[in-house]
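Troubleshooting: if your tokenizer reports a length mismatch, compare your output against this known-good record of 243 residues.
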Amino acid sequence: MSSRLTGVGVGPGDPELVTVKGVNALRAAEVVVVPVLDTGERGRAEATVLHYVPAEKVVRVVFALNERTDRKRREAAWDAAGERVAGLLRERGSVAFATIGDPNVYSTFTYLAQTVGELVPGVMVETVPGITAMQDLAARSGAVLTEGTEPLTLVPVTAGSAVLKEALAGPGTVVAYKFGRQAGEVAAALRETGRLDDAVWGSALGLADESVRSAADMDGTPLPYLSTLIAPPRRAGGRGGKL
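Known-good structure output:
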């Protein structure tokens, strides 16, 4: 039988937001891999997985998730993680990789799957979609992501605040990921483009230290790295005005 690697989206942190299909995939796999920092603390994916599978089934694999400057170190960590998962596939046959959010949206799983595909010829790679942070924040804050013909733009602020500012100058809703360390620049961009008052941000969604606030409350103090921002466009014309 061929080996199988499944990327499972486990949502932004609230265990209740893992889909039934995601839970079934985690339980069906012989082993569940969770990514951890080299500092060793438990991440959101691991904490969520442990609500559904026993700890002895979980394997922690170190990724350089917080490495932004040293490309060689980051790629060496990816290679080592790929080798570890490839070994598990050869031994156990089926591996699920748990990732926060969705495995096809800014996920470590895409890099892992590429590496494992080269190391384990014939491996079957599949993904199970997960609820994203922008969906959860929209639900918790009451923000409407899109109406009618509005576009939706997703920007990782790790690409720079200039990219976000360009998106905010365009139409439709803009969602920003990983903006916490540049909160001051993000607030300034929202103010300059007239989007500050209607924007909301959130962090630790579904967890004990959850925060969901108006973007107008940002004072430039750095926020948690995995903060999410929703900046809707100004909407006029009443119900169905954007149809």
